Amino acid sequence: MLEFDLVSKSYGGAVVLQDLSFAVQPGQMFGFCGANGAGKTTAMRIALGLVRADHGVVRWNGRPVDLEIRRRIGYMPEERGLYPKMRVLDQLRYFGMLHGMSSAAAQEAAAHWIERLGVNQRTGDGLEKLSLGNQQKVQLASCCPPRSSWSPFLPRSCCRPC
């Protein structure tokens, strides 16, 4: 279960989140809706450890989210955070290493997701040469954790073991 417990965040004098509390049960789908500046991205950044909350805590299965837990979370934002000229395989290996994997483990995970998502014929191409659909597959692969760990932020149909 993912739980936000009285999470607050301000930037200067601007309150972005104030006592945000909710829980997402296993198997439950959950989405953020709100106007620009409502705090949706800030909440996700706090959950992913990219920003510290001023107050409150985010828990996974009753435990505060730490580095070990964050390494098991895949998050796919609307905007692609990928490099257009970088080759698909190199890109996925790079993101795996940023996620704390060894080069060999990142290479293995990249190969798994490339095969699983059907972009194995395009591994040597730069992202910009792929169709929009294949670019989205690479984006999904870049946020998928290793095969042994799954996250509620990803559809199970895309991320269950083969």
Description:
The protein has two domains: 69 residues, Rossmann fold (3-Layer(aba) Sandwich), CATH 3.40.50.300; 72 residues, no CATH class. The longest helix has 14 residues. The protein has six helices and four strands, in the order ββαββααααα. The chain is α+β, with helices and mostly antiparallel strands. The protein has a four-stranded antiparallel sheet with strand order 2-1-3-4, with helices on one face.
How are the secondary structure elements laid out?
Elements (H helix, E strand, L loop, with lengths): L1 E10 L2 E11 L15 H8 L7 E6 L2 E2 L2 H4 L17 H11 L4 H14 L15 H12 L12 H4 L3
Antiparallel strand pairs: 1-2, 1-3, 3-4
Helix pairs in contact: 3-4, 3-5
Mean pLDDT: 82
Low-confidence parts lasting 5 or more residues at pLDDT below 50? 148-162
N-C termini distance: 24 Å
Element string (H = helix, E = strand): EEHEEHHHHH
How would you describe the shape?
elongated
Number of strands: 4
Rg on CA atoms, Å: 17 Å
Q: Determine the number of helices (DSSP H or I, runs of at least 4 residues).
A: 6
Strand order of the largest sheet: 2-1-3-4
Write a brief caption for the model.
By secondary structure, the protein is α+β, with helices and mostly antiparallel strands. It folds into 2 domains: 2-70, P-loop containing nucleotide triphosphate hydrolases (Rossmann fold, 3-Layer(aba) Sandwich), CATH 3.40.50.300; 88-159, no CATH class. 33% of the residues lie in helices and 18% in strands.
